[in-house]
Amino acid sequence: MLMIELTLYILLIFEVNKNIQDLYTNEFINLIKLAIQRLQSIDDEKHRTTFLILLEMIFSSYIKKGIRNYPDHKLKDLLTIGIQISLNSVEQPYCLMLIESLVKFHSGTSTDTLYSPKIERLFTLIHELDNLCTRYDPSKIFKDEWFNSYVLIVPTGYVKLTRITYQNLCINQKSPWIIYVWKRLVHLSLAKYSPENNVSTLNSINRWLIDVGHHKYDPDNILTIIFVTNVFNTVTNYMKPLSLPNIEHIITYILHVIKNPQLSVQLDTNNIYRFIQEGQQAIRDILYLKGNILKLKMY
After folding, report:
1. Residue 95 covered by a domain
2. 68: closest CA among 95, 93, 104?
3. What pTM value is reported for the model?
4. 66 exposed, middle or buried (CB, 10 Å; 0-12, 13-18, 19+)?
5. Mean pLDDT score of the chain, rounded to an integer?
6. Is residue 192, in this structure, part of any structural domain at all?
7. What is the domain count for the chain?
8. Which structural domain range is residue 297 located in?
9. Quick one: three-class SS letters along 153-214?
10. Which of 15, 129, 230, 245 has the smallest CB count inside 10 Å?
């Protein structure tokens, strides 16, 4: 009996798929919405489950046929429907495909080299997705390669973010999804970091903090804390402690991070502690050397 039912499912899906492939997106969306309404009126649990399985397979087949050229609003409509018919599981392959398409859609064309509008569009999208899928872990949804066209160069790409642009990015900075995506963007940027001009890099970012009005430490400036800490943690890996330039605003952030390890976001500070210990040792060595020189002079 089970084999007969399975065969009927496959035949039915095959027949339906032949017809839906030629439907315009609006027609398909309307039909799926009607089907969802019909689903809600089915009382028999077995029939309801069967109908839902068929609906999900049909939807999945339609999405897989190709959605890369769909506009933003249609992708969002389809994602909302996908979450509904997947029993609110956004980790289904067709939901992930829709989210990937949305992320890549907002990156613009291959000739779009203006990063500020891209990042703003991305953050607006991520906030919308967070509202739609708030109970899901973003680390299980996003893939790093989706963000390739959003990755900024350290420091030049970041210091080009104006005060207004950066303020817009920080509007929803307490959103878990925004935090996750920002951390991934910073990580991907630093993975490409070229350590030839470390002092210049730190000086540029220190000035940028003034430009965007984030030079004074504020525990609510989560994106800035993430950025400054990760940059310092990476750049100082290629520096000696005594070669550190006068970067008072960056240092203020680092001191607060060290004093408050229980921040709302997890940060990699391993190299920072190593750097500080090396600095302390260098100072002790200098003092020891000066002490020996003074003793020699006394004799």
Report:
1. no
2. 104
3. 0.84
4. exposed
5. 82
6. yes
7. 1
8. 124-299
9. CCCHHHHCCCHHHHHHHCCCCCCHHHHHHHHHHHHHHHHCCCCCCHHHHHHHHHHHHHHCCC
10. 15
